[in-house]
Amino acid sequence: MTTRYRVEYALKTHRRDQLIEWIKGLLAVPFVLHSQPTAIFEERRERVAQMASNAHRRYAEIMRDVEELINDHIANQKAGTAERSKLKLLVPTVGTFFTPLLLQDAFMYQDSRRFISSRCFVPPSFNDVRLILNTAQIMSLVRGGPIELMTFDGDVTLYDDGESLAPESAVIRRILTLMSKGINVGIVTAAGYLEAMKYYSRLHGLLDAIHASQLPLELKEKIVVMGGESNYLFRYSSSSPDRLIPVPRHEWLLDDMKLWSEEDINELLDTAESALKGSIETMHLDAQIIRKERGVGMVPSPGQRFAREQLEETVLLTQKILEISPVGRRLPFCAFNGGSDVFVDIGDKAWGVQACQKFFGGIEGAKTLHIGDQFLSAGANDFKARLACTTAWIASPTETVALLDEISELDQLMEFKRK
Ligand code: IMP
Ligand code: MG
């Protein structure tokens, strides 16, 4: 059993988030000990209600304990001893926390919506914990407020995979509200194009709505688009038919990015291209290679689709080859599984978000929230944004809308308390 478990675990770590799995494991204990699945045979409704209230209390206590462990980790971060925190011993993969997480309050909030404590057959799940973490993060941001910058991934976060942001999308009105409050907005997407027109075609619903809105120009200018993870920055322009104009690189590049040489960029893309071609050959994939100025991708030939395993194998193999290559040690890159394709880009979303922070005058990580769908450690691109700011992990554009509504609800509550 142990061996089998370990083998499974080793093979699937790239598909797990260790902090979420660990919290899920902690919540499983009271679930196993206190849930009353047999109560349904006895038809005693009061026993079910009592079970729910017991489970609620126990889950809340656990979330409070985890909250304290995170506070202790933050204290260690400040003292320069993060490697020695108890949380780091328990979950070695945890990184930097930009703010505390209000996990107990967030659990109460999500439990009142998802009725997690009332379940007696299904324990607290990965998605329950993911959503509690999102709520805890935004509660902390709103209470510590104000949020100064929100960055959004594109595919799966603002629109369905491969689609575009249509005028009827529910997220548009919410983004306009954020901008009307003076919050800066960045769309930080992997989609890498040199021309503003290509971004306009993906984002036209939002860009046209901003253009047509009553917002004063200085608020309309609070949106930027960062393409190719961290390679192309565009700003709003009321006079451009595409609503966007490129910002010259020398105006926004971070100092370290200025050191990336063209030779290294080409060498890294050559290495990535040959790794992708190797995958195509080994797995007999019906695929095409797309080589760009700052990225290279493997997409299915027209009418084809890759299996999930083929995408995962390709991205893990390519990432490994790049990691051990000399140029991969000199230059940051991001190899990721886009759901139906695999891309390797120069730089990553940590650089992309940081460049947006700099562009808007030097916004801190603790005042920035990145919302995305790709947070698994290997083969995902939003994951890197965690190095630059706080994050929320959503699973669909509908969840993005729900998260923005949650933020505005919390904002109103804070406003009410302040009065
Ligand atoms: P995101 O979810 O907004 O980060 O977009 C990811 C998707 O953009 C990928 O899965 C690709 O389908 C698409 N894409 C288009 N051009 C590029 C590129 O140059 N690099 C990476 N992804 C690209
Ligand atoms: Mg995405």
From TrEMBL:
SUPFAM superfamilies: HAD-like. The keyword tRNA-binding does not apply. GO terms for molecular function: 5'-nucleotidase activity; ATP binding; magnesium ion binding. Its EC number is 3.1.3.-. Pfam families: ISN1. Its cofactor is Mg(2+). Keywords: ATP-binding, Hydrolase, Magnesium, Metal-binding, Nucleotide metabolism, Nucleotide-binding. It catalyses: IMP + H2O = inosine + phosphate. GO terms for biological process: inosine salvage; nicotinamide riboside biosynthetic process; nicotinic acid riboside biosynthetic process; nucleotide metabolic process. It comes from the Eukaryota. Belongs to the ISN1 family. IMP-specific 5'-nucleotidase involved in IMP (inositol monophosphate) degradation. Homotetramer. This is IMP-specific 5'-nucleotidase 1.
